[in-house]
Amino acid sequence: MKNYDHKGIEKKWQDFWTKNKIYTTPDSAPKKDNFYLLVEFPYPSGNLHVGHWYAFAVPDILARYHRMQGKNVLYPIGFDAFGLPAENAAIKNKLNPRKWTEGNIAYMKKQIQSMGTSFDWSREVVTCDPSYYKWTQWLFLQLYKRGLVYQKETAVNWCPKDKTVLANEQVVDGKCERCDTEVEQRQMLQWNIKITDYADRLIEDLEPLNWPEQIKESQRNWIGRSEGAEIDFPLEMGKKYKFVYLHGYKSKADRPRNHWYRAGLEALGHEVIIPDLPNSNNPVEEEQVKIAIEATDYDENTVLIGHSLGAVVAMKALQKMNKKIARLVLIAPTIDPAFPGAEERPFHKTFKWDIDYELLKKLAPNRLLLSDLKEPEVRINYIRHLAPKLDAQLVETHATQEHFTGDKEPDVLMWLRPTIRVFTTRSDTLFGATYLVLAPEHQFIRQFYTSQTSLNKAEVQQYVNTALKRSDLERQTDQKNKTGVRLEGVSAMNPATGEKVPLYVADYVLGHYGTGAIMAVPAHDERDHEFAEKFGLPIREVVEPLVVATSGFDAIHQDEPFQERNSIIAIVKHWSEDKYICLAWKPAEWKGFVVGGIEKGEDAIAAGVREIVEETGYQKPTFIRQLGGTIHDKFYHTIKRVNTFAHFTPLLFQLEDGTHVDIADTEKDLHDVHWVDADKVANFVNSRDIKVAWARVSGKNIYTGEGILSNSGTFSGLMTEEGRKQMAEKFGRTKKMYKLRDWIVSRQRYWGVPIPMIHCEKCGIVPVPDKDLPVELPEVKDYLPEGSGKSPLAKVKKFVDTACPKCGGKAKRETDTLDTFVDSSWYFLRYTDPKNPKAFASKAKQAKWMPINLYSGGAEHTTMHLLYSRFWHKALYDMGLVADAEPYTRRMNRSIILGPDGQKMSKSHGNVIDPDEVVARLGADTVRMYLAFVGPYNEVSSFPWNPDGVVGVRRFLERVWRLQEKVGTEDAGALSSALHKAIKKVGEDIAAQKFNTAISQLMILLNDMEKRESLSRNEWTTFLRLLAPFAPHMAEELWSSAGNKKSIHVQKWPQYDEKYLVDEEVTYGIQIDGKTRDEVRVPTDADKETVEKAARDVVAARLEGKTIKRTIVVPKRLVNFVLET
RNA sequence: GGGCAGGUGGCGAAAUUGGUAGACGCGCAUGGCUUAGGACCAUGUCCCGCAAGGGGUUGGGAGUUCGAGUCUCCCCCUGCCCACCA
Fold it and tell me: Which CATH architecture fits A946-1060?
């Protein structure tokens, strides 16, 4: 027997496999099911690292196993070949990025092939190949045609020195990676993809997927849906408007409510014009519109209001004038006669509803509809139908009198003024909103405020300028230090309380989330609280905490009634030291302060004093202060044995001195009294309500949880959850918001897919026609950016100058390239039909393989790549280009291999393992198998590379090699029971991707076989087939030496027989009182009585003189004797 | 601050899902074989004990159970991702 020479063997068989094309996968094979196993394709960085081995060689075990199980397995590979490193290398070393990339691909291909993986190279896909990116462009244009692609001014990282746009990873600590210059934010027109349109579906379609829950959860978090409300706060500001109010049918200017509106608006300094519209009882459109137009000069300071039929007059008048105004407000507009269910009205003959909503939208940038919920349903419905047509803010409310005809209609007046819209998830705390905060980017600041005379315009502008320059990173590291500036001369009205509240601009509010404005509730939000403290703003509590015992010793009993009681919590401070009285209840685990009920005719303080004396014996408590509002608690009273709903008034006392009288025995039996140091109280007490009360002593903890509303007008007493619904309805609208933002796909880079768009002087944006695809990346002289922020492509005149495909006139090509996440959003489709020149992949071939059975990849792609490609697939699905809404049936994230020192492998740590070196020394089979053995493959976990561990696997393989000496030539006899067990276990473990335990079973099998005198040929070749997925080269060599001609990798996985899995005898553990004392071997088929008797005999000495209360026999496991105590 | 995942020998890890904790491998120790060995073979490797035997043990504490690494509650610690998301 020769020694195990891995080098010779691996080379020999790799060549053999390639030559015989054993891994070339047909689209279908007779009597075989297709199985699509996908691994993330690599970026061709130039050198393979251990991570690549882990990513490709371990799933290869699975691919080989499924093949041996009779499946037609597609296990493809390619290269994600566009991207920044190639461009950086090109700039640095004056190379051609294509040549650099292609060189790397050629080198890495050899390395990957050295792993002995079963990739089908005939299906290789390379994203920078024009035959590939032609289809990237084509798919992008399909999305464009579907309305999913748009251009938008977006902030980018800009290095003022290098005059270039920087990717996020090129910004280090807010500075340019290359020249260390401070990075600025700069607005640029960029291509975006509307992934947010799919946010809900991306969340909902996760549900049925067979993915690990954590991956689903992090996708949901990334999308970040939150359900809340939008609420409008009317502004009172220095800016003066001219209000024109048009009354309705059978009405007139001289009505009490009109005078009242006038007074309200004039009080704020506005001008108010209320014309009498002619023939109010028999109105004619032309006459009324004429008078409305002549009422005044309309300009961009005019607010046009129409009530009822006046709303129609207002729309028609505005349409006719075709002048821009500030705002259009329609109060309970008259129903269009064409609307289903509209009643017939006398003026239908003299009015026409030919309204140009698009024009109105242009003329009035701000539109508001007021609807009275007391009115008949048909009008409410009509206004709901009108709102989206006008794209108007719809306010549904309860008027003082139906149809807003009361003498005073406060809701109407409130909404006549300009508003700030906020998004909140806590609309229930609206009564506690004592100020508003706008993000520095907020449009109100740009459009209105800075253009008006205001008291501190310069200060605000300066703040906004510096805030906008601050990078996200700076904002982050400075979270505890809130800054901001008040907007002087303007205030908003809290729509719930009617109070004036101040406005601030502060960068703790984000411009890109929600509406860019918040209502601040300092009593129940920690950030707002911090800001309010700093700026001396009022803090109003509107939520009384309610805690509920859902688990633990005092968990409430379902379906039992609650007994309510008013009680106190008395926190008692020591007379001289910083410690407090805590009580530990003896009958239960409860630990807290002095608590007790308030008796009839007693006030809270008196109850507190009484309870302190009764429960602690201390005689001289002095009341200090009440610690905020009531704290509610629902729990099961373990002594009184009843569900309790307690309302605690928290009180702070201090003892005057240590005067103390022994307490009653009945009290002593109930609890122990402890003096606890202030800093240990929080850990000592274990009751929810007590913890809330204690937090108020320091005053630093803000209650942000659920509870019962207080100080909230008619809403007081409601549960916060219910209040949230009701207030959102009454004062705003419910609204879903997402953290997910649209996908910016523009890159100002050379080495990417050119965006196939043309900018025509006449026609605007024109997509490149399909017949002109691909738009090929031209050669350029150098890869430095062009200087104005455009990509190096902008310097290539031949590329840029083109003719418009529509009109043939002068036009310029788009010079941005696509984000590489676009390339990788569909590569798996191309594998199914990699050479197709007519389509990105034919439907027939897709159908053979999609959706993917298993996608294995790195945890770093859990959110972005996975989300982008899921979105992309859904968009294609909606266009009928793919057959499934989801591309990946299963997804698994693999673990991570660390350096030998337990640190992440990196050059700076000096702990990088070079796989080529290890392979040269120990062989590819050893490395593959070691990586599979080191730990569970699909866990959020990491394993250090252990150089000794690798040697151990090598040792295993050498022992296998030596085993061939024991093999006879006869196929005599049945397989051993150990072999049957291994066939089952190894197979099941591979299928479950538990490669580590599969290998340990092979080791157990080897240990067993080594002990044998000889092995039959049949046993030997069976063993080799089990080994084949792990060590494909060695298995093939030994298989061939055993006289086989065909490759082992096209063989069938061996079969096991159930009857050989069962041993003749089993060992039972013998326990006494649950402690293992001994063991006994009994025939496998022995009945309970036999087992029990055998066990009893073994431990007879121990059982002497004891009485057995109970015996538990767990078949094939153990016998437990429970003794009488 | 939020979300997720974890915590088992000297180390990487197993544990039929509530049933003899530590399979398998590494390391270490002793012995054998050897000119040598980072090779190979055998035995051992939680603690006390020569042994028979006894005791302990899955981050800490409590609970449920005949029986808990596994279930429940409280606390502590570590890693990853996100982070002023209203």
Answer: Orthogonal Bundle (1.10)
